[in-house]
Amino acid sequence: MNVFRILGDLSHLLAMILLLGKIWRSKCCTGISGKSQILFALVFTTRYLDLFTNFISIYNTVMKILWTFSIYLESVAILPQLFMISKTGEAETITTHYLFFLGLYRALYLANWIRRYQTENFYDQIAVVSGVVQTIFYCDFFYLYVTKGRSWEKRVKLLAQGVTHPF
């Protein structure tokens, strides 16, 4: 296991802890897209269904299909959350941190795949292409998160109005 995978997994775990902490503290889920959470639940359900079976032919057929489906679904599951922020023009600080760490998890996994290709000569086209697509969806959000010279709310409102790169 390489450092990028470990950091990616830790980033993913931190994103989940931030989300649960936000919901626990505020006793509500305002600002969190229910559609994204349903899609993520479906992603991980389909990805790990193979834990309930050991029969080789089922794993090699159905479970591989479910794994591929979960990878494709994960690449677009964040879109409802990003659309919700764009539409409402609002995002709590904790929500932005949650999204940042989800995006960081994906970006670190890109580095993990590069490292695996260099060290193991392993390349998974489905995972890499889906990961690149997902990271591209996060790019505008990353730009806003990292360069917030103005307040976050102001930038999100400008995005909602169609300004692609508010300065």
UniProtKB/TrEMBL annotation:
InterPro entries xrefs: ER_ret_rcpt
Record keywords, A-Z: Cytoplasmic vesicle, Endoplasmic reticulum, ER-Golgi transport, Membrane, Protein transport, Receptor, Transmembrane, Transmembrane helix, Transport
Keyword match Phosphoprotein: no
Top-level lineage group: Eukaryota
Any one GO BP annotation for this protein: vesicle-mediated transport
Transmembrane segments: 65-85, 97-114, 126-146
Bilayer disposition of the protein: Multi-pass membrane protein
Similarity comment text for this entry: Belongs to the ERD2 family.
Descriptive protein name: ER lumen protein-retaining receptor
Species this chain originates from: Daubentonia madagascariensis
